[in-house]
Amino acid sequence: MRKATQSLTVAAIVLVAGASAAAQQTDAMVEWPYVGSDQAASKYSALADIDASNVGRLEVAWTWEPNELPNREFGTRPGSFEVMPLMIDDVVYVSTMYSRVVSLDAETGEELWAFDPEAWRTGPRGGPPGGFKHRGVAVWPAEGNRTVGAGDGMRVFINSRDSLYALNAADGSLITSFGDDGRVLLTENFPNPVTHEMFDQTSPPVVFEDLVIVGSRVPDRIQRRFDTPGSVQAFDVHTGERRWVFYTVPQSNDAFGADTWEDGSWRFTGHANVWGLMSLDAERGLLYVPTSTPSSDYWGGRRLGANLFAESLVCLDARTGQREWHFQAVHHGLWDYDFTSAPNLMTLEVDGRTIDAVAEVSKQGFTYVFDRVTGEPVWPIEERPVDTETDVPGEVPYPTQPFPTKPPPFAAQGVSLDDANDLTPEIHRLAVEELRTYRLGPLFTPPSLRGTLQRPRVDGGANWGGAALDPETNRLYVRTSEGVSPNQVCETDPDLPEVDVAYTNNCPRGGSAGIFRGLGGYVPAERSRLGPIPLVKPPYARLVAIDLNAGDIAWSVPFGEGSRVMRAHPLLRGVDLPERLGTPGAPGPLVTGGGLVFLGGGDPYLYAFDAATGREVTRVATEFRTSSNPMTYRSRAGRQFVVIATGAGPDARLVAFALP
């Protein structure tokens, strides 16, 4: 696993490094110490060595391969490579699909050390659909916006499955004074017993003062009474002692929010996970926590009510875990519209007011903007009546949902026959015929027994990649997926393990029925007559710039060339297709002081856009599809790199680009 592929010979590296040092000797090293660049999740770097005038000259400087393979003995396999690396003191820190931690030389990609928590031994059942994945690590201590470095006692934290590990940044060894010989079990002292098959971690921790704070991921396939509630836990960085815990489902009848669970359903309902990324206002000690849908995602017949704190943004006191304020974006969720993006923190100038704000981009295509201290919306958010008609027994959809008045939605919402794909007359005819077999309607149209077509899709809109903020302009850049998802519920197959709800999404038109693949009672998805051709018009992904001072969309452009399988379909033979059909996906962007927005995810390219106009400046090829958020840094030698994870499983690569 110690392999670093360099694009230049050793002699050439020496010559280039020498020339770089002479030309840029005043250029200081610039780190990327958090997965989002900073605790405020800006995904911004002031670096401007690479700009529109030279970005087209980017080339691969080095690659690194995790070399992780499926394990037949334990039935586990590595999934998509989704890491957002850190760079501190000229060292890159990476988490792999199997949640190994690896440190690399920032200039060459040479592997320095590796730690393996052996997550592959835990079996496949607790892992995400598509294989194991992990998105990054956190370090302690952090001073301001930089860390002290491995030589000064820095610790690296990795939350792998049901455990939290503390490592010495100098050599990757376990810090035995933390927890039990360097490990803390994350599933102890919960309201209900929790096994490692019920608990997982895919997003990195947050470190604040002497605390390391982690969220939770209870697999969606578990849909039964007394499944595990979502949680945020804080542990002492020195000893591993749990200092506080916040449950996203109230745990007593007197707790705030318990009255939003009718018939005391808080007692046995779980999930409302915190599987996405959290953000921190370190100066105020405020932690911003996005939460997901309660169990089960698409049928809530035994959890009637609004269901706090599911699908909410919750602000916690980072020192104590006490709730400061919250906002619920989806009442009684039935669409899998989890909050997954790391909230962005910024200071806005709105109508002559200076506001320290927090903004959350969402799967449903809204941007929710609040005063980060009080939780008051910067612009009004209106409770509006929504369609509550349902043919699903026992279901009672919530009568209203929140709609921000500003900014406008950044993704298309709702489906009608007017949206039918019209790339050719034949495709349009087939699309209209198939659309007529679904229930169609605006955003928040409930699931149905025949299948509701929902837009945005179950994976967004925006997803875990989130948005990038340019603090100089207060423009927020977000990638959005523009397709549709079927949302059907049906009677639960009695052979389906760990599911005891009456209705579930294990249906031919289930919203994400793939979560049950490989289990008894699994129902394969119905195939569209159009195959890989979507039922609705392109583009299927966009990059959108939102002016947060004005509360408006600055620009919106198609992103990605789209599915190559779709382009090769016989129904499109000879058709002059748009160059950018759009490539959906979860990863988000990076914005730099060089006036560029970098973005990947789905295509085998790293794209660069003009941040001011949305013009696609260039794209640089990768061997495999890009699969995570890009990051950037300047090494001690004075060279700016742009790094992005690509591929999945055995094809995973970390690719570093730089100027020649």
Write the layout of secondary structure elements.
Elements: E1 4-6, H1 10-23, E2 44-45, E3 59-64, E4 86-88, E5 91-95, E6 101-105, E7 111-115, E8 138-140, E9 142-143, E10 146-147, E11 155-160, E12 163-168, E13 183-185, E14 206-208, E15 211-214, E16 231-236, E17 242-247, E18 279-281, E19 286-290, E20 312-317, E21 323-328, E22 344-350, E23 353-361, E24 367-371, E25 381-385, E26 400-404, H2 425-435, E27 452-454, E28 467-470, E29 475-481, E30 485-487, E31 490-491, E32 503-504, E33 541-547, E34 552-558, H3 564-567, E35 590-592, E36 596-599, E37 605-610, E38 616-621, E39 631-634, E40 640-646, E41 653-658
Parallel strand pairs: 2-35
Antiparallel strand pairs: 1-3, 3-41, 4-5, 5-6, 6-7, 8-11, 9-10, 11-12, 12-13, 14-15, 15-16, 16-17, 18-19, 19-20, 20-21, 22-23, 23-24, 25-26, 27-30, 28-29, 29-33, 31-32, 33-34, 35-36, 36-37, 37-38, 39-40, 40-41
Description:
The chain is mainly beta and 660 residues long. It contains three helices and 41 strands. The strands form twelve sheets. It has a five-stranded antiparallel β-sheet with strand order 1-3-41-40-39, with no helix packed on it. Strand 16 and strand 17 (242-247) form a beta hairpin. Residues 1-25 and 143-147 have low confidence and may be disordered.
